[in-house]
Amino acid sequence: MIESFGKPDSEVCSQGFTLNNLGGLSMKKKWMTAGAGLGIGAVLLLASGFSAMANTSGYDAYKTALKNTKAETSLTTNVDLTISDNGKMLVTGAADLKVNKEQKAGSVAATIGDSSEKRSINVFRQEGKVIFKSSEEDVYKVREMNAPKWQRNGDHSNPSKVVEQVIGTLLGNIKDLATVEDQGNGGKHAELHLSGDQVPAVVNAVGTVVVSKLANHKNNEKAPDWMTNMPKLTDNIKVEKIDMDAEISTKDILEEQTAKIKIIGTDKSGKKHELTFTIHVDYSDLNKTVPEHIDLTGKKIEEIKNKGMKRGWRH
Amino acid sequence: MIIANILNETEKLWKHNRTKGFLLLAILLPVISAIILHYLPNNLGIGSNLPMLMLRLFTFSLLPLFLFMSASEAFSGEVASNTLKLGLVRPITRAKVFASKVAAITIFLAILLGVIMITTIISGWLVPGGDYASGLLDIFTAYAAAFIPLMAIGCVSVFIAQFFNKSSGALVTMILIYTAAKFVPFIFPALSVWSIFSYTNWYVLWIGNGAPFVKLANSFILMLSYCIMAYSAGVILFEKKQL
Amino acid sequence: MDIVLEVNAITKQYKNGRGVRDIRFDIAKGDIFGLIGPNGAGKTTLLKIIIGLIRPDHGSVTIFGNNTTDQFEQAMQQVGCMIETADAYEYLSAYDNLKLSARFYPELPKTRIDDVLEQVGLAPYKKERVNGFSLGMKQRLGLASALLSKPKLVILDEPTNGLDIEGIVNFRNTIQQLARVHGITFLISSHMITELSLIVNRIGIMQNGQMIRVGGVDELVKPGIRLEQYIVSQLHTSMEGDHDDHRKYIK
Predict the structure, then answer these.
(1) Span of A49-58, B45-54, C185-194 with lowest mean pLDDT
(2) What is the DSSP-derived secondary structure letter of residue A231?
(3) Tell me: the pLDDT tens digits for B91-135?
(4) Interatomic CA distance for residues A41 and A89, integer angstroms
């Protein structure tokens, strides 16, 4: 078909084919470089990915311990809460929570107040009833057990799993700031310390709102003294520090945990305040907790409807 | 030659109104946010770290969007407008054309981050409580660290762009992938370790006391591996492109 | 005779059956080589393979002694080209478009962009954005872009598309002058041979992805016959030949 008018060039053409069969030397080098890049990249990805997965972070250690602790059939939880302003104690609160799932019983003894005034509340769960007793009144309020589904139903793993995943995802890389340390005795110490710019904007916003809400009780005459002592921060409110620490036992169960939140700001007069919220939680008597029991015979009783429960909490 | 083409690609990117628009947003958003926060009660408590707030916002949405748009325009868009060949018939290898396109996108990413950082610091002074002279180093570190995952996302976008001959198709695909990648960890948390898109706020690991070195190195290598793989695969596809 | 371009056994087959098959020819210094054939003959594909936009299945291309697969940069150093439609960055001015290209040739004097715009008659529009240009203006800008680097080999694909008569005459004059005075080699494809017949000294005729004739105009065309007539006759013979083959095959 082809009439060649030029010089015969079989030499050139065979050379052309040879070159092509080799793919060209520099071409080959190019593909090899790119291929090597892919290979090295893949190896690095697998190595770093798996090491990241294997590297149990403080967050994971804590999550596991929290789950295990919740799964215990009975335990006693002591909660201590303090709020201080510039080092001066404003509020202290304490609560003893005793839960026994097998006996379907529980009790809470809580006090809150400052050095001059204390209020307390007791809650008992027994024999299918919930009983409230506040230190303000001499009445035991009794309510038939009609708790919302999630409370009645012991198995609420599903919603909590969703919550856990959402929290985990929202925290994102902040999770990685949580560390875990072996204590030598087999126990672990997990911590997440956030300060300054590490504090997520959302937390900062929530902290600010909470602080201003707490101070709003000032105008409420009924409010107890310790609430009126709460400084009303108006400017430069900032969550400066969040320290969360947890001690985890050898059996991967929480022994105690502490959360300390420091919020700074200034009030109307321009005075600087440093509010510190400390919550300390202590777990004890695993599997041998017996909740307090109250004998109602001869005591003043008031039956309350479901709606009344909220009022009961508010005094 | 590669320098010549980096200049060319940078100039082209700059001459696009879109790039100027992003630059304008990088200046306006922090200023507007500062003004809004100024009038909110207690600045909602977030006025004090405007630079971090803006970094979060930009690394989550606008900067990835910029990368998606630039990558799809530089590759898919130039295929569609028949302009890709203008550079390819010059005395420069395809590998260098590819490298210079990636370099130009990276340069603008760095410029945008720099502009956002400076405007947030300046406009942050408008907000009472914006007292972070001591945190300047933290801010700088955070912005520098934020560059790395974005760079990797840029490489991945460039890789995806190779599959499209139209910038709109490439852009939509990238946005869909990004959105999906942001949602998947809610359902499969374990996957978030592997997804490059979940590292956009890894800069928090660098500020304050910071995360342990091993953790930082681990994440860095993971992002680096994404860069290397996406880049290599992108080059292969770009070399194979028949125009 | 210095060989500027060698095309060796180039084959590229597309899935739809089209492509080019076993193309071989060469172009010597100073040639104005016309690549002629009907639409769809494979001219653009061939030109794209020559300048590296398409990778061939087989064969190789050598420009100034440099293989385009292995030494692309060296091979393209002295090549200027305009392929398919004359596209440019629409959001840039004519001048800025050429400025981008000029960066690849640092040795060019600064006045070169203005000179080449003058040469193609676009000087008055140099500051205007390309998106307002007519097809003819884009074509001229494409030519300017191809000539910008003072290349020794210029490859043009359908360069007269969209040009008016004056533009075509100017174009021919420019090409002829560049070839005669500066010894620049041209490879020009067209499906409209009339425009080229006055200036080409060698031609290659393509049909159905194959090069059916290659040679000097003087060698191929007998005196007294016009180049167009010759080409049309060749295309016809070739088609009849195809038919004959086909019939034989059926028998």
Answers:
(1) B45-54
(2) -
(3) 999 999 999 999 999 999 999 999 999 998 888 776 655 555 557
(4) 56
Domain with B39, as residue range(s), is: 2-240
Boundaries of every domain in chain A? 11-54, 58-114+155-294
For an interface test with B, which of C64, C66, C100 has the most B Cβ atoms less than 10 Å from its Cβ? Answer: C100
Q: Are the beta carbons of C59 and A24 separated by less than 8 Å? A: no
Q: Is C209 helix (H, G, I), strand (E, B) or coil?
A: coil
Task: Encode pLDDT of C31-85 as tens digits.
Answer: 999 999 888 889 999 999 999 999 999 999 999 999 998 899 999 999 999 987 7
Chain B residues with CB-CB distance to C15 below 8 A: none
Flag whether residue C213 sits within 8 Å of chain A, measured between CB atoms.
Answer: yes
pLDDT tens digits, A198-215:
888 778 888 888 887 776
Residue A199 sits at the chain B interface (C-beta within 8 Å): yes
User: What does the block give as tokens for A195?
Assistant: 């300060």
- Number of domains within chain C: 1
- Rounded Cα–Cα distance for residues C60 and A22 (Å): 12
Name the interface residues of C facing B (CB cutoff 8 Å). Answer: 48, 51-55, 72-77, 79, 81, 83-85, 87-92, 96, 100-101, 103-104, 106, 145
C129: domain CATH number is 3.40.50.300
Instruction: Give the pair of three-digit tokens for residue C170.
Output: 């100017």
User: d(Cα A206, Cα A128) in Å, to the nearest integer?
Assistant: 37
Establish if B228 touches chain C: CB-CB under 8 angstroms.
no
